[in-house]
Amino acid sequence: MIIEKNGFIHHVYFWLKNPGNVNDLNQLIEGLKKLSVVSTIKNFHIGKPADTNRDVIDNTYSVSWLLLFNNKEDQDSYQTDPVHLNFVEECSHLWTKVVVYDTIGTN
Predict the structure, then answer these.
(1) Domains of the chain: which residue ranges?
(2) Which SUPFAM superfamilies does the record associate with it (predicted)?
(3) Does domain 8-104 have CATH number 3.30.70.100?
(4) Is the Cβ–Cβ distance between 16 and 102 less than 8 Å?
């Protein structure tokens, strides 16, 4: 996967209120799949912590949501898209914490 020079990466980590609850996990994942239809999303990846263990790894989250956008403007549009707003309304009761890392290219 090649990220364009002006590409924008939006990586979201979710900590579930009930991390052992499979139904809550599945509901969040299904919500993210529905969210993936937003037209400005170039590509996405839904993940869970890998089975790795080193001091620098934080694997305390439940689900990660990696999004690729062509540029910052597309990501800004995603933030106010009705599909995104609906996802937050329908799924925010599932998590206790969300951390976001946004990055742009260095070139």
Answers:
(1) 8-104
(2) Dimeric alpha+beta barrel
(3) yes
(4) no
